[in-house]
Amino acid sequence: MAELDDIIHQPLRLRIMAALNALPAATGLEFAKLKKLTGATDGNLGAHIETLSKAGYVGVEKAFVSKKPQTTVTATAAGRGAFARHVATLQEIIAASGGGE
């Protein structure tokens, strides 16, 4: 059985990756929307996005919209692949425990 991805397995990072992977490829979510979806605080969300970014799982784009800073987070191809493998491993665990019946 494959190993769970320690980067993605943390609950908030799993929620971030799930939200981003629900979008079409190369489509990102604005920080405020991601914050609302995950229920995280600014600092907590920022720290976890940084961890995902350092792992190459998300891209972060910072811009100014109407003179306000806007951060958009997008799952990378590597991140999408890692998320798919993580979900497959979770499904294997569930199936092996009889929870998939």
Layout: helices, strands, pairs:
Blueprint lengths: L5 H4 L1 H11 L7 E2 H8 L3 H13 L3 E8 L2 E8 L1 H20 L5
Antiparallel strand pairs: 1-3, 2-3
Q: Under CATH, the topology is which?
A: Arc Repressor Mutant, subunit A
Largest sheet entry: 3 strands, antiparallel
CATH architecture: Orthogonal Bundle
What is the count of structural domains? 1
Using the coordinates above, name the CATH class: Mainly Alpha
Name the CATH superfamily assignment.
Answer: Winged helix-like DNA-binding domain superfamily/Winged helix DNA-binding domain
**Parts with pLDDT < 50 across at least 5 consecutive residues:** none
Structural class: alpha+beta
Rough shape? elongated
How far apart the termini lie comes to: 19 Å
In what range is the share of β-strand residues? 15-25%
Strand order of the largest sheet: 1-3-2
Determine the fraction of residues in helical runs and give it as a percent range.
Answer: 55-70%
Oligomer: single chain
Total number of helices = 5
Write down the overall mean pLDDT.
93
Task: Provide a descriptive summary of the structure in words.
This protein is an alpha+beta fold and 101 residues long. The protein has a single domain, classed as Orthogonal Bundle (Arc Repressor Mutant, subunit A), CATH 1.10.10.10. It is built from five helices and three strands, in the order ααβααββα. It has helices at 6-9, 11-21, 31-38, 42-54, 77-96, and strands at residues 29-30, 58-65, 68-75. A hairpin with a 2-residue loop joins strand 2 and strand 3 (68-75). The relative contact order is 0.21.
